[in-house]
Structure formats: C-alpha cells, structure tokens
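dumping this here before i forget
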Amino acid sequence: MDTTPQPDAPPPGDPGTFARIEEGEEFRGLRRSFRGFAFPLTAAFVAWYLLYVLLSGYAPGLMGATVAGHVNVALVMGLLQFATTFAIAWLYARHAARRLDPAAAALRGHAGGGTAAVPAPAASPSAAPQEGAAE
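structure:
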C-alpha cells in the first residue's frame, strides 16, 4: 500500500487541514451521531444509578424486601447495575461500528492520511502457524 501523501493534499498533521475538517458538515454529523447516542444513554444510566442510591438511603424497607430466599431487591438492583453497564458497552460498540467508525474513516481519508493513519495491529508470534501443525 502506498503511504506517500498526494502532491495536491496538505501534509498529514497540517493544522489547516484539521481546522477545515472540524468546520465541515461530515465532522459535525459525526459529532451529532456520537452525542445523540452517548448523552441520552449517559443521562439515563446516571438517573438509574441515582434511583438505586436514593432508594437505598430513603426506602430501606423496599430495598430490604425479599425476592427469593436471601435475595432482596437491593441485591437484584445492584446486579442490574452491572448488567446495564455491559449492555451499554455492547450497544455503544455496535453503534460505533455501524455509524461512527465508517464516518471517522472517511474523515481520515479526507485528511490525507487514508487508512495508513491507523496502524495495523502487529501479528503475535502465537498466531503464526506452527511447523508440523495440522491444518
């Protein structure tokens, strides 16, 4: 792959290039897409966490209510905090792969960096096929 900059493109890292990209509609759309996903989900998660904390402090009877055996409402809600965290991480990874990453790659291409601006991960020695290994 040819990584030399094109003669008509500004050199990578040129401040003018970044300022021009930042003012462009593609970058604004990328920011809108990120903010439209991240801000509401963050606000919802913080509200959910604060509900848990407030109920723990001001409704001990409710939080101490037994659900099954020695499991009470507080334990269930606490475990749901972890489940919610993992669900949000999964949703964000899906959103980024579908909407943010393609737009960011296009912007990198416009910056003159192309895909060479993102280094490929180095192959680990353990990933190389072993001699005599069954294929």
